[in-house]
Amino acid sequence: MNILILGGTQFSGRAFTELAVKANHQVTLLHRSAADPGLPPAVRRLVGDRDPNAGNGLEKIKTLIDVGEHFDAVIDMCGYTPRVTKAACDLLKDHTALYIYISTISVYDKAKPDAILDENAPKVTLADPTVEEVTGKTYGGLKVLCEQVVIDAFPDSHCIPRPCVIAGPNDPTDRITWWTRVLTTQNELVIPKPPAGFVSFIDSRDLAAFFLHCAQNNITGIFNATGPESNLTLHGFIHRTHKALDSKTTLIEANQSWLEAQGVQPWTDIPTWLPQAKQYMSKISSAKALAAGLTNRSLEETMQAIAQWDTSRGSPKLQAGMKPDQIVTLAKKYASCCKNNR
Question: How many Å apart are CA 247 and CA 245, to the nearest integer?
């Protein structure tokens, strides 16, 4: 296959690029940075910004099209605004058999905490559909608009995976990596006492494999891409990770009200711990994707791989979660006021 990737130098895009090359597909990458991303030599790299207002990336793709090149699949890893997404779709709509646009479960609107959402669930809307600044408040709505752009351009040849939190080696967010780090370096860790909700994440390598499966088999439609298994509780996630890493960290379970009184915030301070109103984000059904060929490796395999990667990169300062001194301070606070109530 001849595959064009918009983005593809980081995380799940990188995993897809490496997987596609390994499968002997011809891969062309359009990315912004002129620095060598360290991808396989077989990758054809086009350097340029895909935003027509900011660079000439799409012009470089047009040069290939003008000499007769046709793509079996386009993988759009970095379409965040409808204007920029439309520019790529307009250029490529007659020059690819399949357009795979990577969206997000953040497209879904608020739901009851116990709701289980499928691909037809209500989606968020933006008060101002012309906004282009990507923030926590606009991200989901912008992705909804981008999806519609893709559907309009490729009515019969679109594939739109909607991943949940992505985990694995090369993760720039450190949301799941935070857990492997603290469970291999901290003496004590205060965690929410159950019930504390559910956890959902997908391994970047499993997500990449699903992209490639869809490309190779011309699979169309919209798919929630979640994992590693349904109804995984936060408590189960923590304790299974603890065991998988042979962790010596003492886990201290505290009432959620006590944690909140200490200023500990779900998601921000303890990644993957969702507040009650957001619990539906960890209970989104991926039954359709599983039926189409998505496979998830075990939680344990993912967490072990993340820990090994984090160690190999030198364990730099993390981008998510409580810092080590905050973790120590919280454990001391709990010991001084609550140890008799454990």
Answer: 5
What domains sit in the chain, N to C, each tagged with a CATH number? 2-163 (3.40.50.720), 177-199+232-278+298-331 (3.90.25)
What token pair was written down for 222? 């919209």
Residue type, 83: R
Geometric angle at alpha carbon 24, from 19 and 28, rounded to 5°: 75
Strand partners, 2: 26
pLDDT above 90 covers a percentage of the chain that reads 91
Per-residue pLDDT at 246 exceeds 90? yes
Closest CA relative to residue 284, chosen from 222, 204, 336:
222
Structure tokens at 25: 């597909």
Q: What is the pLDDT of residue 38?
A: 87
pTM value is 0.95
How far, rounded to the nearest angstrom, does the alpha carbon of residue 252 sit from its chain's CA centroid?
A: 29
pLDDT at position 339 is: 62
User: What tokens were used for 64?
Assistant: 């290939």
How many CB atoms are closer than 10 A to CB 208?
24
For residues 161 and 295, give the distance between their C-alpha atoms in angstroms, rounded to a whole number. Answer: 14
- Asked if 184 and 323 touch (Cβ cutoff 8 Å), the reply is no
- pLDDT score recorded for residue 13: 94
